[in-house]
Amino acid sequence: MAKMVIKRFGVFSAAKLYAVVMAALGLIIGIPLGLIMMVFGAAIMAAGGSDGRAGGGVGIGLGLFYMIGLPIMYGVIGFIFGALGALVYNVAAGFLGGLELELENADAGYGAPPQPQDWQGQQQQYQPGQQQYPY
Question: Can you name the residues that pair with 99 across neighbouring β-strands?
Fold first, then answer.
C-alpha cells in the first residue's frame, strides 16, 4: 500500500471541473422543472381565456429560463465556488500538510510489458520508402 498526500489543487482545473459538474446538475434539474412550468403555463393559457394569457406566458417564459438559464447559472456558480474551494484547500494544505490517501494496487497479477524486439539483427525485405502494402 502506498501512501500519498495531495499537496495542492490546480485552481483553474478544479474550477472547470466544478463548472461542468454543476452545469450537468443544472440540466438534470432544469429540464424537468422547465417542462413542468411550460405545461402549467400552457394549461393556464388554455383555461384562463384572455386574462390567463399573461399568467400562462409567464409560466412558459419561466420554463424556458429553467431549461436554458439554470444550467448556465449553475455552471457559473460552480466555477466560482470550485475556484474558491481549491484556493481554501491550498491554503489549508500549506498549514496542515494536505490530504493523505492510502492507495492499493487493484491488479496484483499485472507485470511489466515485454521488451522491444531487436530489429537490428534481422534482414530487411524492403528498402525504406519501398515497402509493400497489403492493399
Answer: 6
- Side chain identity, residue 65: F
Kindly state whether residue 122 falls inside one of the protein's structural domains: no
Q: CA 100, 106, 109 angle in degrees (round to 5)?
A: 140
At residue 40, the pLDDT reads 87
Residue 134 lies in a domain: no
- Average pLDDT in the 8-24 region? 95
Task: Provide the domain count of the chain.
Answer: 1
Q: What is the DSSP letter of 2?
A: E
Could you list the residue range(s) of the whole structural domain that residue 44 is in? 2-103
pLDDT tens digits, residue range 59-78?
888 899 999 999 999 999 99
Q: Is residue 113 in some structural domain?
A: no
| DSSP H or E segment with residue 14 | helix 11-96
Main-chain dihedrals φ then ψ at residue 99, nearest 5 degrees: -95, 125
